[in-house]
Amino acid sequence: MVNRNLIREFDISEEDWNAAIGELAPDDVSWLDGQDISINQIVEGKVIRIDEEFVLVDVGYKSEGSIPLVEWEETEEDDAAEPPKVGDTIRVLVEDVEDALGRVDDRGMIVLSKRKAEKIEKWMKVMESVHEGDVVSGEVTRKIKGGLLVDIGVNVFLPASQVDIRRPHDIGEYIGKTIECMVLKIDEARRNIVVSRRSLIEAQRAEKKTKLLKELEIGQLRKGIVKNLADFGAFVDLGGIDGLLHITDMSWGRISHPSEMVKIEDELEVVILHIDYEKEKIALGLKQKQPSPWENVATKYPVGSRVKGTVVNVMSYGAFVKLEDGIEGLVHISEMSWTKRISHPSELVNIDDEIEVVVLRIDEQKQEISLGMKQTQSNPWEKVAERYPVGTLVKGKVRNLTNYGAFIEIEEGIDGLLHVSDVSWTRKISHPSEVVEKGQEIECQVLSVDQDRRRIALGLKQLEEDPWHNDIPNRYQQGQLVSGKVTKITNFGVFVGLEDGLEGLLHISELADHKVENPQDIVNVGDELEVKILRVDTDERKIGLSRKRVEWAEEDGVADSASSGGSTVSTSGGELKGGIGGGSGPLFKLGGDDAAEGDAAESAAPADAEVTAAESTDETASETEAVAAESAASADESVEAEKPAE
Predict the structure, then answer these.
(1) In the predicted model, is pLDDT for residue 575 greater than 50?
(2) Would residue 591 be called left, alpha or beta, if left means φ above 0 and alpha means ψ between -120 and 50 degrees?
(3) Per-residue pLDDT tens for 316-365?
(4) Distances (CA, A) of 366 to 230, 301, 361
(5) CA 607 – CA 385 distance, rounded (Å)
(6) Cα(218)–Cα(619) distance, integer angstroms
């Protein structure tokens, strides 16, 4: 019966197993010769006749036995035997007898097998000398599904997974080779044997590993054989234990794969770098056999020196340049050009390009070198002040817009900042997009140049004369009545647009004679108003306005008109009316009534004078209060943000 657990363990079907081992002997084979011939007994017989197909053998039974002549021919499992001769004595297996089965072969003879008898006797000898765990040696005879057949006197099965520690690409390369294996399993009932070369190697390596670990020391030079390659390095057999030769320890220079340095089965001399006795791991080095090129890097490449190198890698942040084997430096993207705006280093360099660079910094501990490309050329910012002195008119293209201004490209890589406060003399600009747009070409004036900080300040309003010097003070004077449109309403007053970009502040206290809590109760944005100019402050660039004083002026005008049109002249206490004839009133009016009326008028005059003086005082005080409030409110409204850095 086949040991199915054994079959499952090595992932082989029962059919493949039988094909590998061949036809098996029955379970009840008798190994001793006896007087009574019975089935499955091995006996001696004498060849008495040979014909074209069969060999007749006398085994002492009442009838002869026959053996097919082909059993002497070569098969896949057995070599050809010497042809039989009459009179030869041979050992055969009795397969069928008349008494046992009531049948014989078609010629009336018992059925015998020479080949099976030989196979059984071979198994008998093997079973007497081989045990599980023993080491056996044999020749690999052929490849079958699932593994190899090894002849150790009989064919035994070597599963493919047990051929080596690392499964070979083709196990057929072992055919014809004599190998040593360890016996894993023996099925005595079926007389099947499974062997393992891998287990033997592992056992031998374990013994060597223990001995080798005691001998190894950091810094030693050891020879080994490359057994396997991976992307990160090579595994080297030191004679019982594998060490890892990492790709970074193969060469001081740059390599992308271990196969560039070593191949499987190469013999190498390596340096022991580190030993982990607990995990039984060993780190190996190849480049450490040579001195590090970084030992004298500061002497060979002093800071500030110009050197030539080859671009070996390009990343998004910069390019790596090889100065010599094992020495590479990084040219950061910010060190590639003084003026060009580079999105990726590949815009300037490619792999294998030979370029000239300047050594900027060296970190020997980290083995890092910073290089610069732009330092091999003159810095255009060093002569910016000469090319663009203050007051120069320049033309440029709007490259970018921010909340605080617009960046104008004067030349490639040279930008100037047009701050919002330098766009207009009169107009309040909240964002530069109100005046310019990206890509637009404009003309500006250079206001200042800071070469150290690489900044140029530009102005647009400076192209025109400041209207606050002469134009506005000449056209807008205190006491003048003007018209304007409400542009903005705040909690402290109303801004009135007098002309494009010029606004005045109508303080809340100057909106009406009565107290105003909310300016929107009186006016709305877009309303056309007539206002009186209270003051024009050229230093603060502000105009104070009043609405209620317009009404006062109108009232004063009506009063003046009434006084001049109905004037009377009193000489003798009576009323003198002009006109010639046809008058309805008397020319002279005398008597006490006139005197009384004259006295009343004279008595009332001082009171009228006091009222006029009081009105004048109130107006002056109100105007002073409004100007002060307007000044404070306007100051709050016009605080300019500090110009930020580019």
Answers:
(1) no
(2) left
(3) 999 999 998 888 999 999 999 887 878 899 999 999 999 999 999 999 88
(4) 27, 16, 12
(5) 74
(6) 102
Q: Which of 330, 341, 234 is CA-nearest to residue 282?
A: 234
Can you give 69-98 as a three-state secondary structure string?
Answer: HHHHCCCCCCCCCCCCCCCCEEEEEEEECH
pLDDT for position 124: 76
Q: Whose structure tokens read 């480049």?
A: 287
Torsion sign across C-alpha atoms 344, 347, 353, 354: negative
The reported pLDDT for the residue numbered 141 is 87
Cα–Cα distance measured from residue 86 to residue 78, given in angstroms and rounded to the nearest whole number:
23
Nearest to 468 by CA among 530, 376, 538, 392: 538
Neighbouring C-beta atoms of residue 261, cutoff 10 Å:
20
**353-385, pLDDT tens digit by residue?**
999 999 999 998 888 999 999 888 877 777 787
Q: Is 473:536 a contact under the CB 8 Å cutoff?
A: yes
Nearest alpha-carbon partner for 357 in 423, 311, 291? 311
What is the C-alpha to C-alpha distance for residues 218 and 223, in angstroms, rounded to an integer?
14
**What's the DSSP call for residue 41?**
B
DSSP class of 26? P
Q: Under a CB-based contact definition with an 8 Å cutoff, are residues 79 and 71 in contact?
A: no
* pTM > 0.90: yes or no: no
Nearest to 245 by CA among 256, 234, 229: 234
- In DSSP notation, 118-136 reads HHHHHHHHHHHH--TT-EE
- How many CB atoms are located within 10 Å of the residue 531 CB? 25
Identity of the amino acid at 151: D
Report which of 120, 22, 137 is spatially closest to residue 75, judged by C-alpha positions.
Answer: 22
With H, G, I as helix, E, B as strand and everything else as coil, classify residue 308: strand
Strands 221-230 and 267-276, how do they pair? antiparallel
Displacement of CA 175 from its chain's centroid (Å)? 52
CA-angle at 7, arms to 2 and 13, nearest 5°: 95
User: 147 near 160, Cβ under 8 Å?
Assistant: yes
Q: Which residue has the tokens 């054994």?
A: 6
- 3-class state of residue 30 by DSSP: strand
